[in-house]
Specification:
- The protein has 995 residues and is mainly alpha-helical.
- It is built from 46 helices and eight strands.
- The strands form two sheets. Strands 2-3-4-1-5 form a five-stranded parallel beta sheet, sandwiched between helices. A three-stranded antiparallel beta sheet has the order 6-8-7.
- The longest helix is centred in the middle third of the chain and has 18 residues.
Length: 995
């Protein structure tokens, strides 16, 4: 039988899960996340107890990490195997009750009728009776007090009695609040539980109290094992959020996931409260969710109040600094005795409210950012201002001039003190410093651009445009630049005011920036209105620097328009911006225009594009311009990826852009990297990268980035011949095409047409490539969809393109990206073969196939496409190519193109290997030589120098058949006799050395 325990309200430290709708009236147990090793260890202990071998486990960890939740899971697991389960909990609420958790567990047995017969515990029956009375320790009526040893032995014998048949589990929760008598009994049980059919599961906080010390001592003498629960990892937080919402992990809102990861510190209790708080306030109700869920705020308040008045004052002042705070400044601001403050600091650390932040003791951080927010919310306006003024004075005294990051801390303190203008000024200066740090290799800060955006958002919210128009304009300019580069456009004010007191040229620049923001968010009409306003403000004879800035914004706006001439217009505006900015000392505009020109030229003239990128990078380095430098490095890495053996440079550039907070740039690198991985048939890596990047590409200014990732996903399916999944990805792409004109041509050329070729539907591929060209004529694509590679090869093979139609085909075969060189080179070889230049055709084809080495699927497709022409015109190695292609496509499961290769081989009179079961066991080199499965079986025995007669006996075939197979093996592998084959096969690196 299994005992039942009474339900009780879950405290803030407990790990609760929901089985019904989130935010509903009931919360029950859901799936336990992230505790696989711990549950396995508990299961082992329960199994041992059922076999008569007891043990003890401590569950420790900080508040809210899920200690009680794991204990509850252990109780359920024990009950499922019909073990006796008991549970008791210590408490500090109400008058003290000696042995409370033990008494609570015994009362459960009594209510369930599971106490042993009176004579069974022997001499300890009076002790049991005393425990279950209302005076277990002091006694009444002259009775002596019960000794700890007597209580412990009684409990031990009771566990042995009730667990005799199926074992027993005793859970004692919140042991850190237990009285000294309970801990003495537990210590006795720890030393003697090993010989009983019972498991002792003890739940205790990690604070340095008697229970924690008892756990350490028990582990040292091997009387118990400690299961110290750690916070959940990011993937585990995602799983927990999904479980709470009742959705798949991929469906979790990125914003909610980001908040759950950053604000919870991996504590399950906080994660769940954030999810419940989010679900209880749907966005469509227009309610603004409070910064801290009520249950979390209450938990922080209770733990803070336990530190006393000085602890409350200390943490309240610390919260003014945000998630982390400098201890020396606090000590100076509070002006209290160092010893007293040290005691409070130790208590706050023990309560898991704060934690050391870095080496030494100068900086500390709140364990969860929500703790700082909760403490701030608990301060009254006057109290907050007084604390902030004292802290600001202390900071200025200890760090004159506010160097480095101190300026941002001072700004925050002035904001809390109500000095808005000074706070805004300091925020703006700190943000400019953070933006400058984007380029510093030595900075350890992650995403400094996002930090700058946060500071600028605070500054802008504090400023009234009329009160300080110049400062407001400066902050707004920086804010718009940071938002555009980081794509955090949701942080921009709606609409941002442009003060009339600002000079016209500066207002024109602000409107140009607003035009760029409108372009990013897919509002072309609004972008044009801002650009028209900017030009109208530049009347008379405006400085070249201002007109160049507006022209550059207009060039980017052109890319978002649906117009056949948009790329030419954008290039013209960019060149004009370069000329004007060069003479006006605007290196930032020069860099931006050069980068745009390089992107527009990349797929037409790669050499010119690289030159533009290199010039932009050099200018950015010379003038310490961090964002243009990062953009140039990414663009150069994208270009280099088409030439490098491995795209490691692109990987590094993307990671660095991400680290600096340049999210659109990082996503551009990510989509380019995904396409490069797809071409190299690293499909799993490409899938993982696309999923990770798409999760970040949901912002309002990232429509083009998300569209590129959706296109990459479609290309990934197309290169695997998975048409249905490709169509699904293209359907997901369709709503995004307005944000990315030109991608429609790429969707036909890089996805649909390639998939059709792998299906041997050449007419369909031709039609899809023609459609790509038609879409490109209507809305030119800035990307490569096969115009200079695959389209040329198919056109040459079909006879539509000849030397006079493509006079630069020889140059295309040696220049440009490796991806296009393979197709252009094969097209050039076909033309040379038709012209009778067989040796040159063979040499050109070899160069093209060498360029195709990183792209195994495209290489084999190219060999399959040109094999007939090579065979008919007498150049190259068409039979060898087809065998290699057939081998590859068969292994990849692309049966239509593999079958076409076999048909071509038969038409050329070449032998075609059989595709029977076991073919995959034949080493690739032997398969390419035409060795069949049966011939391979014979070859392995020949390599062991076994005679033909013995081979016939082993394989149960005739001697004549063996002799025929041996002859075929020697002929196909080019060995003169059995001995030579056996020696070569068994050499290191030989064809049989790994089998």
């Amino acid at each position: 039988m299994t005992a039942l325990w009474p339900a009780r309200p879950a405290g803030p430290a407990e790990d609760r899960t929901a089985t019904g709708p989130v935010g509903g009236p009931h919360r029950g147990r859901g799936r336990l996340i992230g505790r696989t090793a711990e549950t396995a260890r508990i299961a082992d202990a329960l199994a041992a107890a059922r076999s008569g071998r007891g043990g003890a486990l401590f569950i420790t960890g900080e508040p809210g990490v899920g200690k009680t939740r794991l204990a509850t899971e252990a109780l359920a697991a024990a009950a499922a195997t019909d073990m006796i389960t008991l549970r008791g909990r210590a408490s500090t609420v109400g008058p003290p009750v000696p042995y409370r958790p033990l008494v609570e567990a015994l009362l459960l047995l009594a209510r369930a009728g599971l106490l042993p017969d009176p004579g069974e515990p022997g001499a300890h029956c009076p002790v049991l009776a005393r425990l279950l009375s209302d005076t277990p320790e002091t006694g009444t009526g002259g009775h002596a007090a019960v000794s700890h040893i007597a209580v412990a032995e009684t409990v031990l014998r009771l566990l042995a009695a009730v667990g005799r048949e199926r074992g027993c589990l005793l859970v004692l929760d919140d042991l850190h609040d237990a009285d000294a008598g309970t801990l003495a009994v537990v210590e006795y049980l720890l030393d003697n539980i090993g010989q009983q059919p019972a498991v002792l599961l003890l739940v205790a906080g990690g604070t340095p109290r008697a229970a924690a010390e008892l756990a350490v001592r028990a582990r040292q003498r091997e009387a118990a094992e400690i299961l110290d629960l750690k916070p959940l990892t990011r993937p585990e937080v995602r799983l927990l959020v999904a479980a709470e919402l009742g959705v798949a992990p991929v469906e979790v809102c990125p914003g909610l996931l980001h908040r759950a990861v950053t604000d919870s510190a991996g504590i399950p209790f906080v994660v769940k409260e954030l999810v419940h708080d989010h679900a209880a306030r749907p966005a469509d109700r227009g309610e603004r969710a409070p910064s801290v869920p009520a249950a979390v705020a209450d938990d922080v308040r209770r733990r803070t109040e336990a530190l006393g008045p000085l602890g409350t004052r200390f943490l309240g002042t610390a919260a003014l600094f945000g998630p982390r705070f400098p201890l020396p400044v606090l000590e100076h601001a509070l002006g209290v005795d160092h010893t007293a403050l040290s005691e409070v600091l130790r208590a706050a650390l023990a309560a898991c409210l704060i934690t050391p932040d870095g080496p030494g003791t100068r900086w500390y951080a709140f364990r969860s950012p929500l703790a700082a927010e909760a403490l701030l919310d608990g301060l009254g306006p006057g109290e907050r201002a007084r604390h902030a003024r004292r802290a600001a004075r202390a900071l200025a005294h200890l760090h004159p001039g506010l160097p480095g990051a101190w300026r941002a801390h001072a700004a925050r303190l002035h904001e809390h003190a109500g000095d808005d203008l000074e706070a805004a000024r300091l925020y703006g200066e700190a943000a400019q410093r953070a933006m400058d740090e984007v380029a510093l290799e030595r900075t350890a800060e992650q995403r400094p651009l996002e930090r700058a955006l946060e500071l600028l958002t605070r500054a802008h919210a504090l400023l009234e445009p009329a009160a300080a128009p110049a400062l407001h304009a400066t902050v707004l300019e920086l804010l718009l630049d940071a938002a555009a580069h980081s794509a955090h456009l949701d942080r921009l004010p709606r609409p941002p005011a442009v003060e009339q007191g600002v000079p016209a040229a500066r207002r024109a620049g602000i409107h140009a920036r607003l035009g760029t923001i409108a372009t990013l968010t897919g509002r072309p009409a609004e972008a044009l209105r801002h650009l028209d306003t900017a030009r109208s403000l530049l009347t008379g004879h405006p400085a070249d620097g201002h007109t160049a800035f507006v022209d550059l914004a207009a060039a980017h706006a052109e890319l978002g328009r649906l117009d056949p001439d948009r790329l030419h217009t954008a290039a013209r505006l960019a060149r004009r911006a370069v000329d004007a900015a060069r003479g006006a000392d605007r290196p930032d505009v020069v860099c931006g225009a050069l980068l745009l020109l390089g992107q527009l030229a990349r797929h037409e003239d790669e050499t010119a594009a690289t030159a533009h990128f290199e010039r932009a990078r050099a200018i950015a380095l010379a003038h310490r311009l961090p964002v243009p430098r990062s953009e140039a490095e990414v663009q150069l890495a994208i270009t280099a990826a088409g030439h490098d053996h491995r795209p490691t440079r692109l990987e590094q550039a993307g990671r660095e852009a991400h680290r600096r907070g340049l999210l659109p740039l990082a996503l551009e690198a990510g989509s380019a990297l995904a396409l490069e991985r797809i071409r190299r048939c690293a499909f799993d890596e490409a899938r993982d990268g696309i999923i990770e990047a798409a999760a970040e590409a949901s912002g309002p200014g990232l429509g083009r980035s998300l569209a590129m990732l959706r296109l990459a996903d479609a290309v990934r399916y197309a290169h695997q011949g998975r048409r249905a999944e490709m169509h699904g990805a293209l359907e997901r792409l369709e709503p995004l095409l307005d944000a990315a004109p030109g991608l429609r041509a790429l969707s036909y050329g890089t996805a649909r047409a390639f998939c059709s070729l792998l299906e041997e539907r050449h007419d369909a591929a031709e039609a899809e490539l023609a459609q790509a060209l038609a879409h490109d004529a209507e809305n030119p694509a800035a990307g490569d969809f096969g115009r200079h590679g695959l389209i040329v090869l198919l056109g040459v093979l079909a006879g539509r393109i000849g030397r006079r139609h493509c006079p630069g085909i020889a140059e295309a075969a040696t220049g440009g990206s490796r991806w296009n060189r393979q197709f252009a080179g094969l097209a050039h070889a076909v033309l040379l073969g038709r012209e009778g230049h067989r040796e040159r055709a063979t040499a050109v084809a070899a160069e093209a196939l060498a360029a195709a080495a990183p792209y195994p699927m495209a290489r084999c497709l190219g060999m399959r496409l040109v094999a007939r022409s090579a065979y008919e015109d007498g150049w190259g190695a068409p039979v060898q190519w087809l065998r290699e292609a057939e081998e590859y496509f068969h292994g990849a499961g692309l049966h239509p193109v593999a079958g076409a290769a076999r048909a071509l081989l038969r038409g050329m009179g070449a032998s075609v290997r059989q595709r029977r079961t076991g073919t995959e066991q034949v080493p690739p080199d032997l398969r390419r030589s035409g060795i069949t499965v049966r011939e391979f079986e014979v070859a392995r025995l020949v390599a062991e120098r076994i005679s033909n007669k013995d081979i016939a006996g082993r394989l149960h075939i005739s001697l004549r058949t063996v002799e025929k197979h041996v002859a075929n093996v020697l002929h196909k592998t080019g060995h003169p006799n059995r001995r030579a084959f056996a020696s070569a096969a068994r050499d290191p690196g030989g064809v049989l050395s790994a089998t």
